[in-house]
Design the sequence.
């Protein structure tokens, strides 16, 4: 347990462990991969079952599936415009994967795969590559004019172009670090306050039990806050993907 | 910005805050609500551009053998790109609809 030896061990929750014993170890299948598969299965089940009945008055599952669909559809259409509809499946998949990763991580005994920079950076790199390919496919070499805003004085080109390129390259980093840091910070805070509950509660008899209520209450509030953050970060990831797609489609 | 637009925007923000409208984020360029969110967003934008600038500088230095100079140059460029990222955050590029 985390409270042993009076040390707060908040980071061991992010360690990878082989899943399914020796089988998982031999193919390097960790609990992180297992949660990704679980998220994939849950998303597929939600969308398939949710839309199977096609009721005019939706049930709970159908309402959930439809509101998720319409939420992302609104974002994509609002940001990219009507020609952005073809990118909707991409943004929707990314959003659902991140959302389920964040939400699943809040369940007891679950693992948050979005708390690993390797996962979030892979997602952000995917977005970055797709956006760049879309821009190149639509605009060809004209895409490179993106790095030099029209109307700027030509003499400033050696200054502006490197800065614009660095700014463009920083997108996947800011995209991935934001999600990763939010998830890690939230789970570390939860763990630290949970450790306080055990430490204070086991310390001084009745007084300790009364004192342990305070970090416990804090943790209850934090779980609510983390649910908000889990949704918000998935939303931010989706909307930034849409904004980048807008830049790729319209250049500026 | 005239008064009517201002009111419309505040109404929209209030409706979004109360969950009556789905947040569209079109006007704010994807800024998360709340001072914490904005602050965190700004910090990440600044640092990530700086990291990319420093990375490019160090790689070019190693490749060309010009040890500190390109690093210094791209450090400054990265910092400038970070500032520009933040500027973009609050003033998105021209021509964005909605």
Sequence:
């Amino acid at each position: 347990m985390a409270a042993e030896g009076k040390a707060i061990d908040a980071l061991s929750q992010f360690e990878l462990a082989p899943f399914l014993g020796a089988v998982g170890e031999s193919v390097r299948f960790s609990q992180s991969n297992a949660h990704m598969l679980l998220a994939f299965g849950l998303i597929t089940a939600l969308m398939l079952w949710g839309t199977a009945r096609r009721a005019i008055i939706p049930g709970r599952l159908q309402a959930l599936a439809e509101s998720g669909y319409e939420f992302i559809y609104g974002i994509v259409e609002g940001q990219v415009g009507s020609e952005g509809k073809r990118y909707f499946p991409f943004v929707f998949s990314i959003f659902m994967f991140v959302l389920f990763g964040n939400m699943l991580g809040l369940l007891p005994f679950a693992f948050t795969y979005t708390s690993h920079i390797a996962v979030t950076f892979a997602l952000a790199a995917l977005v970055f590559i797709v956006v760049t390919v879309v821009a190149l496919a639509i605009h060809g070499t004209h895409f490179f004019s993106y790095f030099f805003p029209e109307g700027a004085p030509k003499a400033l080109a050696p200054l502006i172009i490197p800065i614009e390129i660095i700014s463009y390259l920083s997108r996947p980093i800011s995209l991935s670090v934001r999600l990763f840091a939010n998830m890690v910070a939230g789970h570390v805070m939860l763990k630290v306050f949970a450790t306080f509950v055990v430490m204070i509660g086991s310390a001084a008899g009745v007084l300790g039990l009364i004192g342990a209520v305070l970090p416990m209450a804090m943790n209850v509030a934090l779980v609510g806050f983390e649910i908000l953050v889990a949704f918000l970060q998935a939303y931010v990831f989706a909307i930034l993907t849409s904004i980048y797609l807008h830049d790729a489609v319209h250049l500026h | 910005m005239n008064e009517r637009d201002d009111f419309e925007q505040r109404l929209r923000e209030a409706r979004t805050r109360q969950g009556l409208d789905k947040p569209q984020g079109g006007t704010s360029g994807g800024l998360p609500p709340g001072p914490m969110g904005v602050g965190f967003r700004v910090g990440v934008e600044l640092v990530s551009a700086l990291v990319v600038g420093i990375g490019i500088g160090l790689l070019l230095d190693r490749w060309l053998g010009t040890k500190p100079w390109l690093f210094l140059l791209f450090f400054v460029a990265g910092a400038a790109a970070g500032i520009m990222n933040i500027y973009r955050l609050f003033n998105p590029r021209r021509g964005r609809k909605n």
The interface with chain A takes residues 22-26, 29-30, 32, 37, 40-41, 44-45, 47-49, 51-53, 56, 74, 77-78, 80-82, 84-85, 88, 92-98 of chain B (CB under 8 Å). The two ends of chain B are 15 Å apart (CA to CA).
